[in-house]
Amino acid sequence: MNKILYKVLDDWIDPSQVLTCFDGSSLLCALHSTLPSESDNKIKDLGRYSFISANPFAVFNALNGDVFFNHKKINKQPYDLNPFDVLNKFMQDYKIETNKDLPPFQGGAMGYFSYEIGSYLENIPLNQTLSDYDDMVIGIYDWVVSFDHKEKKVFITACGFNQDANKTIDFIYNKIKEVTNFDLVQPKKSSQIMTDFTKKEYEKSVSKVIDYIYDGDIFQANMTQPFKVHYDGASPLQVYQYLSHINPAPFSAYIDCDNFVIASSSPERFIEVNCARVVETRPIKGTAPRSDDLAKDKKFSDDLLKSEKDRAENIMIVDLMRNDLSRVCKAGSISVPNVCGLESYQSVHHLVSTVKGELQEDKNAFDLLKNCFPGGSITGAPKIRSQEIIAELESCNRGVYCGCIGYIGFDGVMDTNIAIRTMTLKDNVASFNAGGGIVSDSKPESEYEETMIKADKMIKVFK
Q1: Which helix (H) or strand (E) is 214 found in, with range?
Q2: pLDDT exceeding 90 applies to what percent of the chain?
Q3: Higher-confidence residue: 74 or 110?
């Protein structure tokens, strides 16, 4: 079992500055809390830590049903090509003695699982168009730069699996000393915002979901629509920096996958497992706009709290997540300490619930992900039938959107987001989605407007 070595930096450096030091590095990955200092304390606690690493010593990819290790296809035996089981088996060979005085992620797996990874777990139909992007990109990282936003401390940790830990720390420390300030750059639209749906077509799809509800197929499904825009005048990292500036969130992320980039500013935690094996998920259902007019803003939040429709959506997903967690958590350990609480971010108000449990002794983070993926808040209830309806009615695969981004440590800790407010950047084209939960009393026009509210901050990234 390897012991973690670490170095504490003398001064606080913002993660966005450190990102610039490693721009262009192989599989640069940042799990980044971008919350402003005046954020509500309970939201700030969610975003206490940020993590950056690059140049992983192993890489796992999945694409169109196949799984790859260091870019070589894995044969079926002894795997069933379930990506979570493949990663689980690999990670068993790497154990670390973590330092409880350091931020929780001290080395391990970082990256993303796309929404379509759900089809590797269940017989879920997919859109007929093959994906342009990997269904999964996960790096195994030997070192991490971690940031404690509460204590204003920066740490470099190294595990020593891939190379001498002291040499790694010295190299990273010298690299960070090159940090410089950067100017925010707003990318420019070089095309109009494009989508696969007209307003009428999206409303027709929502009506179809409502028909399925009345037919007894489902109680709820999450319908989304894709957007696309050509841009210039900014690098992918500058696009991310501007996105996180105008839409700060506790679970932001940046992943440079070499031929495309993921830029996320998600407010939603999918699943966390801490060192005490306590599990937490925080589904978001219910959204209202913000306003600079304090009276209007208060009315928006009050109306959201009073909304029977939004509360019904949220509680349905709470029940779904309780069921998912029960497969891998100890009997009697699951609780719901918060139902439909209001959380206010820079661009929107949300209703957020919290579900907790304690992991069974013979289960780990990969078992948990496998049994809960994809998240209930972005599928519906029942989950599998909702996914089938989503595949029927949406115009293309979702990709990383509605999948999850995060880390799984060598010691078994995990934290992941639901990848909403998330862009894929390739060849100066930004692709993103926005959607919402549909229930029996949903109004198609209102659902369309909700997608536009959610997409608004993404659209405003481009001038």
Answers
A1: helix 199-214
A2: 86
A3: 110
